[in-house]
């Protein structure tokens, strides 16, 4: 069995208060919470540092569905927030905990189960995550899209904003397309942790590679953690970081009619 924790803070740099931003009749956080609940987790938690979020979350999350916990305002990342909750709840170090970002209102619930299932399949692994194939040369060369490479046992070797794996002999104009067919993969920021590994990672200082690439997962990789990865069973929907993203996601939700109040559905 696995638990899901949704870390949620109010002070988002690019879109303040985005956890409570209404999308198709519900705050974004509620969409994410309902996705987590449908993933059949043993428990679902919302971990926040802001009473505005906690109060709103309590209105749609009860003890029989999802729980709300207040955490420190000093955390540098959602991972630290999840680690605090795991520590205060006294979860066993082998407990599987899935960190679901609060800005993923279109995340397929089967991906949550898939990430947790990787740790069940590989009992020696510390962390599990997912990937999808890189779809274009533009994505391959985009530093905002994180690439990942793994060994034959799907143990992660490296995450990078750089285009990896590189194709030494490819002409510059053909570089991205050739690399895609060699198995370039895009990392999806969904993680399942052993609670013990989560605590150890949160206690580590920022590592040199993490500082260079601005990728928190490199702290664990550089410290020797066993990170396993699989291709996602379905591509995830877009996350929300800007006003444009809000409009885009709302359009997709209204078009699908998934869980949308009848008055808001398109006819």
Notes on the structure:
With 267 residues, the protein is α/β, with parallel strands linked by helices. It has a single domain, classed as Spore Coat Polysaccharide Biosynthesis Protein SpsA, Chain A (Alpha-Beta Complex). The protein has helices spanning 28-38, 51-60, 78-89, 109-121, 137-141, 175-181, 195-203, 208-213, 217-222, 243-256; strands at residues 2-8, 22-23, 26-27, 43-48, 67-70, 96-99, 127-133, 147-150, 156-160, 185-194, 227-231. The strands form 2 sheets. Strands 1, 4, 5, 6, 7, 8, 9, 10 and 11 form a 9-stranded mixed β-sheet that branches. Strand 4 (43-48), helix 2 and strand 5 form a beta-alpha-beta unit. The chain starts with a strand and ends in an 11-residue tail after the last helix. Residues 262-267 have low confidence and may be disordered.
What is the string of SSEs from the N terminus onward? Answer: EEEHEHEHEHEHEEHEHHHEH
Give the CATH level 1 class. Answer: Alpha Beta
Shape-level CATH architecture: Alpha-Beta Complex
Distance between the termini: 40 Å
What's the number of structural domains?
Answer: 1
Low-confidence stretches: 262-267
β-strand percent reads 15-25%
- Rg is 19 Å
How many E-type strands?
A: 11
Overall residue-averaged pLDDT value: 89
CATH topology: Spore Coat Polysaccharide Biosynthesis Protein SpsA, Chain A
Features of the shown structure:
10 helices, globular, disordered C terminus, Spore Coat Polysaccharide Biosynthesis Protein SpsA, Chain A, 267 residues
């Amino acid at each position: 069995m696995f638990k899901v924790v949704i870390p949620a803070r109010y002070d988002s740099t690019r879109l303040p208060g985005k956890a409570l931003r209404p999308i198709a009749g519900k705050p974004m956080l509620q969409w994410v919470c309902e996705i987590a609940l449908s993933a059949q987790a043993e428990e679902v938690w919302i971990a926040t540092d802001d009473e505005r979020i906690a109060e709103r979350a309590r209105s749609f999350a009860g003890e029989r569905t999802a729980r709300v916990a207040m955490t420190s305002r000093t955390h540098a990342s959602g991972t630290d927030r999840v680690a605090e909750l795991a520590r205060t709840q006294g979860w066993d170090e082998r407990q599987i905990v899935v960190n679901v970002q609060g800005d993923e209102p279109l995340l397929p619930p089967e991906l949550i189960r898939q990430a947790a299932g990787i740790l069940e399949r590989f009992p020696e692994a510390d962390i599990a995550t997912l990937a999808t194939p890189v779809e274009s040369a533009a994505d391959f060369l985009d530093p905002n899209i994180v690439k990942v490479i793994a060994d034959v046992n799907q143990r992660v070797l490296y995450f990078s904003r750089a285009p990896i794996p590189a194709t030494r002999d490819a002409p510059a104009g053909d570089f991205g397309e050739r690399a895609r067919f060699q198995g370039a993969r895009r990392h999806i920021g969904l993680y399942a942790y052993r609670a013990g590994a989560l605590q150890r990672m949160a206690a580590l200082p920022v590592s040199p590679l993490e500082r260079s690439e601005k990728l928190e997962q490199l702290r664990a990789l550089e410290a020797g953690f066993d990170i396993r990865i699989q291709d996602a069973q379905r591509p995830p929907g877009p996350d929300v970081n800007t006003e444009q993203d809000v409009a885009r996601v709302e359009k997709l939700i209204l078009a699908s009619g998934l869980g949308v109040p009848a008055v808001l559905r398109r006819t």
